[in-house]
């Protein structure tokens, strides 16, 4: 078991409520069942930080109050332990089985990062789990969502790492979370070898965690545009070919959106289910994706 103890924003839909909705969806969709966090016990302390400040006579802001939560889960294993075909299979399960199904049902994760991609054994198979819903939102609930900028900076979509994105002027869409999955795969496959973190001189991206959001976005933009092979990998490695294919698609889509923006002052994207399917299909239809998904373990 593992305990998660945190101060959540009182104005946000609680992670507990989101997890309850996720469990309901799992009961309705067999493909989701078994891929959800297993909550064993929970407790919410009813006094928010605003009430505590008031009781002690401590001056403080009237907004931004937090509530203390304790959630106890079944312990899963980190995806960074995996490599090659196993890494791809668990990663894709998190995308295809969990993430898109929940998004279509109105559960928006909005913080895809390697630490939230987990797995476990079941009936001799490795099962992927998308974990951690404290920054998530529900489509039918009031409160922060939509244009609120959330996520872990090194893995956020480039659109959200612009000055406009950081000001909340870019709506957080399904495609942004899917792009985060691509950055996660690059992070894991280029910084780990057979589940072990590479020495500092051989692993890329260390600087990303030290930069502010906009500066990190600039670094990521250069990586996506150049796709220079890092010292830890050969250019003919199937994993590198896969990354080239995925980031090539992202680059093409980014270019098309920039071109569209130049024709209009504002471009409001409408998100529909068919659009989500079309977006992911642009990746799954590439040769690199097919080669890796069909390769032997």
From TrEMBL:
InterPro entries: Kinase-like_dom_sf, Pkinase_fungal
Domain Fungal-type protein kinase: start-end pairs: 63-188
UniProt cross-references to Gene3D superfamilies, sorted A to Z: Transferase(Phosphotransferase) domain 1
Cited PANTHER family: FUNK1 11, FUNK1 6
Name of the molecule in the record: Fungal-type protein kinase domain-containing protein
């Amino acid at each position: 078991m593992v305990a998660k103890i945190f101060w959540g924003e009182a104005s946000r839909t609680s992670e507990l409520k989101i997890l309850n909705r996720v469990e309901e969806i799992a009961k309705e969709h067999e493909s989701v069942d078994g891929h959800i966090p297993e909550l064993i016990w929970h407790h919410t302390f009813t006094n928010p930080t605003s009430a505590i400040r008031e009781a002690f006579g401590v001056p403080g802001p009237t907004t931004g109050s937090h509530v203390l939560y304790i959630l106890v889960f079944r312990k899963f294993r980190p995806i960074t332990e995996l490599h090659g075909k196993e890494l791809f299979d668990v990663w894709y399960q998190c995308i295809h089985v969990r993430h898109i199904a929940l998004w279509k049902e109105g559960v928006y994760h909005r913080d895809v990062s390697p630490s939230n991609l987990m797995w476990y054994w079941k009936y001799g198979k490795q099962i992927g789990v998308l974990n951690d819903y404290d920054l998530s939102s529900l489509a039918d609930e009031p409160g922060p969502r939509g244009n609120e900028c959330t996520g872990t900076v090194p893995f956020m979509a480039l659109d959200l790492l612009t000055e406009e994105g950081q000001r909340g002027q870019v709506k957080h869409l399904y495609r942004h979370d899917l792009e985060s999955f691509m950055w996660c795969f690059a992070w894991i496959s280029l910084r780990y070898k057979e589940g072990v973190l590479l020495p500092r001189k051989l692993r890329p991206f260390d600087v990303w965690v030290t930069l502010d959001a906009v500066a990190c976005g600039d670094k990521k933009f250069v990586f996506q545009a150049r796709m220079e092979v890092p010292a830890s990998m050969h250019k003919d490695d199937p994993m590198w070919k896969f990354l080239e294919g995925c980031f090539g698609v992202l680059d093409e889509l980014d270019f098309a959106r920039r071109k569209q923006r130049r024709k209009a002052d504002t471009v409001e994207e409408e998100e529909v289910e068919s659009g989500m399917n079309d977006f992911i299909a642009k990746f799954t239809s590439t040769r690199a994706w097919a080669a890796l998904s069909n390769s032997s373990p």
